[in-house]
């Protein structure tokens, strides 16, 4: 009788631990940055909100402009967050998982020189939203672009250097400061949701 009770208690504990582990895994599972409703896609409205949030976070003095120093400070912090194993270096899995919530799987992405806003560049099937796979495709290439010495690791210095190029692209009037409009135009452009696009196509 005692053995039976012990076995029952043991099984109950195992079940509770399994449930707790599953719950923790669900809560800590990475997701794509900007995917507010966690449905595996970042739609136009979510992308705009995420871009605005990041701009506001970098605008340290709240003058509605982001200087190179502010952008460098903000992205240096991002490099630290991406570096999950705390070795001072970021590999492709760390970078892509940080932004997209999934590890890269040899996905292709648009090549350099595409002047479309980043949201449209990433939206390869032009459905007005970004899937995890589309995110992975672009950030895999973005990692390799930042990895200047091609050692499969991105140092803080390499990441900052890549930001200098981004800053120059975003600052279209070359006044050494990025406005919220310049930021939004670069990252989002005139995106619209798939439903809106479909509706607007019916005349």
Question: Can you describe what's shown?
Answer:
With 203 residues, this protein is mainly α. The chain folds into two domains: 1-30; 31-200, no CATH class. The chain has nine helices and four strands, in the order H-E-H-E-H-H-H-E-H-H-E-H-H. The strands form two sheets. A two-stranded antiparallel ribbon has the order 1-3. It has a two-stranded antiparallel sheet with strand order 2-4. The chain is globular and about 35 Å long.
Please state how the strands of the largest beta sheet are arranged side by side. 1-3
Uncertain ranges: 9-28, 107-115, 195-203
Basic shape:
globular
Class per helix and strand makeup: mainly alpha
Listing every helix as H and every strand as E from the N terminus to the C terminus, the arrangement reads HEHEHHHEHHEHH
Rg (C-alpha, Å): 21 Å
Which range best describes the helical content: under 10%, 10-25%, 25-40%, 40-55%, 55-70% or over 70%? 55-70%
Give the strand content: under 5%
Strand count, sense and barrel status of the largest sheet are: 2 strands, antiparallel
Distance between the termini: 77 Å
- Helix tally? 9
Give the oligomeric state of the chains in this entry, treating copies of one chain as homo and distinct chains as hetero. single chain
**Count of distinct structural domains:** 2
Mean pLDDT value = 79
Count of beta strands: 4
């Amino acid at each position: 009788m005692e053995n039976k009770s012990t076995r029952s208690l043991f099984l109950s504990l195992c079940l509770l631990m399994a449930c707790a582990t599953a719950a923790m895994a669900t809560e800590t599972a990475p997701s794509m940055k900007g995917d507010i409703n966690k449905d595996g896609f970042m739609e136009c409205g979510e992308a705009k909100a995420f871009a605005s949030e990041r701009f506001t976070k970098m605008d340290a003095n709240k003058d509605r402009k982001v200087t190179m120093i502010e952008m460098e400070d903000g992205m240096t912090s991002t490099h630290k967050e991406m570096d999950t194993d705390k070795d001072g270096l970021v590999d492709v899995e760390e970078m892509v998982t940080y932004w997209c919530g999934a590890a890269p799987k040899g996905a292709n992405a648009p090549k350099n020189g595409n002047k479309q806003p980043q949201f449209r560049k990433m939206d390869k099937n032009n459905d007005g939203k970004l899937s995890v796979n589309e995110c992975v495709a672009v950030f895999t290439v973005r990692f390799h672009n930042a990895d200047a010495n091609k050692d499969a690791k991105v140092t803080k210095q390499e990441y900052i250097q890549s930001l200098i190029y981004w800053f120059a692209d975003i600052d279209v009037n070359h006044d050494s400061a990025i406005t919220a409009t310049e930021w939004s135009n670069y990252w989002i452009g005139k995106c619209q949701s798939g439903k809106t696009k479909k509706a607007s196509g019916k005349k």
